[in-house]
Write a structure and sequence with these properties.
Elements: H1 2-31, H2 35-44, H3 46-49, H4 53-65, H5 69-82, H6 87-99, H7 103-115, H8 120-137, E1 143-155, E2 180-194, E3 199-212, E4 220-233, E5 236-249, E6 252-269, E7 272-285, E8 293-305, E9 313-325, H9 330-335, E10 338-352, E11 355-371, E12 378-395, E13 398-411, E14 418-431
Antiparallel strand pairs: 1-2, 1-14, 2-3, 3-4, 4-5, 5-6, 6-7, 7-8, 8-9, 9-10, 10-11, 11-12, 12-13, 13-14
């Protein structure tokens, strides 16, 4: 009997020694970030060591971080059942519940560990998770915002006309490019109403009025209303909405626009975002009905927040679209029916705490389907624009603004070529 007992004890000691060795190997792989290898090793030893809290802890971590979250939860639940005061197991289990969106269970375990006053590094990590849980489970209040802007500036080509007479067509003086001073008013109001932690309704209204000093026939007004539904899903957002716009020139309706659009965005890293969009618009002109068209567009933008003294925020994007006339005709084929494409890039810089400077460039190419009715060739336009924007936030509600833009349009048809410069200074009041 004594020999049997000694043999049994030796067997148990050897089994525990092997278990400790396997567990250390799994832990070492976990510490190196080799979670898939750790999970595979644990799976091979599962029949022998499942139920050992030390083994189950490392097995649970490997399973969670290799994508087998449910398996990891079962392993860690065994550990917590056998060792109710095992703070590390509770932390890993709380993280697993969070990943499976079992947020109430996750919050309970995080708070249990937090109550034990863990080290500062662990406490900070717990607080980050608890903040995310609060954001995911709390419906934020309805937000109202808006602004009013007053501008004064100079536009050296108010009608986007060529700078001089063309060779084929003799233009009237009113058709040539000319400059004038202007004043401008911009108004905006928006509301965001969340009816769940992940779903919101958004509405906005904008008005833009420009008044030229000596060329009132070029005055314009635009009124735009937007509405959309926003879905938030972890690092992704989806937005589906509508837009409607009325554009007037010299106090008469010129064009109306009605459209639908969708936006998908994804937080790639802590400092980068990818956005893609698509939309369809119906354009209707009050008198120039041959311009009526359906416009389809899609594109992608990438934003990256860099590091450094000026806190650069880089952005770059591209787009592609098609504009098709609603009514066929010679004029529509040569001046409406087109494929357009382009790109933009820029950076927002913060040289001082309350000052932002944003230079950007834009290119758009347009290739028309039919021959121009005068020149009898297919029109090809290339649009280039440099934009410089400066904002100084003097007070949370007040900002001084400055903007300069230079536009250069090249075309294989001379009457569509022009340059344009605008410089303007403004004052904004923000409503919160």
């Amino acid at each position: 009997m004594k020999r049997v007992s000694i043999g049994l004890l030796a067997g148990l000691f050897f089994s525990a020694w092997v278990s400790a060795g396997i567990t250390e190997n799994i832990k070492s792989l976990n510490d190196q970030g080799k979670f898939a290898e750790a999970y595979k090793l644990a799976q091979n030893q599962l029949d022998s060591f499942e139920g050992d809290p030390k083994f189950d802890l490392q097995y649970g971590v490997a399973a969670i971080d290799s994508g087998h979250i449910s398996e990891g939860i079962f392993a860690l639940e065994r550990v917590v059942f056998l060792e109710p005061n095992n703070a590390l197991a509770k932390l890993e289990l709380a993280r697993a519940y969070f990943l499976l969106k079992q947020l109430d269970k996750s919050r309970t375990l995080f708070n249990q560990v937090k109550a034990a006053n863990p080290p500062p590094v662990v406490m900070a990590r717990i607080n980050q998770f608890l903040e995310q849980i609060t954001n995911k489970t709390t419906i934020p209040p309805t937000k109202f915002s808006g602004f009013a802007e007053l501008w004064a500036g100079y536009d050296d080509n108010i009608n986007s006309g060529p700078g001089g007479q063309t060779q084929v067509v003799t233009l009237s003086d009113s058709a040539l490019g000319r400059g004038d001073q202007f004043n401008q008013i911009r108004l905006n109001g928006s509301v965001e109403h969340a009816y769940s932690p992940q779903e919101s309704l958004l509405f906005s209204a904008n008005a833009d009025f420009r008044y030229y000093h000596t060329e009132p026939e070029q005055n314009y007004k635009s009124f735009t209303v937007n509405g959309s539904h926003l879905w938030k899903r972890d690092s992704e957002q989806y937005q589906l909405g509508f837009t409607t716009q009325n554009y007037q020139i010299d106090r008469e309706n010129y064009r109306t626009l009605i459209g639908m659009n969708g936006v998908w965005s994804k937080q790639l890293t802590s400092n980068s975002v990818l956005k893609s969009f698509a939309g369809v618009n119906s354009l209707n002109y009050a008198s120039l009905t041959w311009k009526d068209a359906t416009q389809i567009n899609l594109g992608t933008n990438y934003l990256y927040a860099g590091s450094g003294k000026w806190q650069p925020l880089f952005f770059v994007g591209g787009f592609l679209g098609d504009e098709s006339p609603k009514v066929d005709g010679v004029l529509a084929a040569g001046q409406v029916d087109r494929l357009f494409f382009g790109a933009n890039a820029g950076v927002q810089l913060t040289p001082y705490q309350d000052v932002t400077f944003t230079p950007s460039v834009t290119y758009q190419g347009s290739r028309f389907e039919g021959n121009d009715w005068i020149y009898n060739i297919k029109r090809q336009d290339d649009f280039y624009m440099l934009n410089l924007n400066l904002e100084w936030v003097m007070h949370p509600s007040w900002s001084l603004l400055a903007n300069y833009s230079f536009t250069d349009v090249n075309s294989n048809i001379e009457i569509y070529e022009y340059d344009r410069q605008q410089i303007m200074f403004g004052l904004r009041y923000n409503f919160q």
